[in-house]
Amino acid sequence: MIRRRDPGEVQGWGHPCRAYSYAAIALLVHTIEMAEGLPGWLAARDPSVLLTGPQASQALIGLGLGGMAILILGRSVPNRPVQIVVALVVGMLLARVVTLVTLSLAGWNYVPGTATALALVLPAALWLYRNLPLADPARLIGAGAGVLAMAPITWAALWLAG
Hints:
about 160 residues; 5 helices; disordered N terminus
């Protein structure tokens, strides 16, 4: 006899709610790579840059923990406002991937975090974006707002860390 599956039943690795967890884990690994490598990368740059290694590490850790908290909350709380904030985080993650790849290509040298951004963050963020329980305009607007908010939120985190 063939058993019919309940549409809400958790089914293996591909269940949509796992996208939140994968995105949180990808962000954790990415944050660790950046926090470990960015201070040395910054130290090798022009000393006129006002950003210090410890300041960058503190800001990255704060942003990473905040993003992971929102992703974990999004997995647990399916209401619209929380999911819009998750879409904002997804947009910020995608913007970070583009920024790191652009910086690596522009300087012809590896910027710490680029590998995990491409290998982990990009696929996890795209998978989560695809599985967000939002209608397309809200999902697109939330992610687009995240892309636009990445720079100011990053600067605010750096200012708080400084």
